[in-house]
Request: fold
Amino acid sequence: MEAQTPKEFFEEILSTRFKPEKAVGVDVTAQLDILGSEGGSWFITVKDQKMQVIKGTHESPNLTLKMSANDFLDMINGKISAERAFFTGKVQFKGNIAIALKLRDAGFL
Reply:
């Protein structure tokens, strides 16, 4: 199922993609700031192989990603890889890349 908006992804699709077995040992809070008319801010916490998605801004996330709504949708719908988005400057990333890769493996990106 392709997400039509970031909101739909965070509220309806992400939980179906999350793979708890791939999140062993992951303890992270990731802030996502999606720019544009369809955008918004969400933060995701992953701890003890459980994920929680909250609309809003976290005061001290471990990871921060900022990108346009169009680029975000392309990434989560498989039209561009997370790595390509990063290396082509489509995503502004702050934090530990190893943790981001674990999140990707767990179905997050």
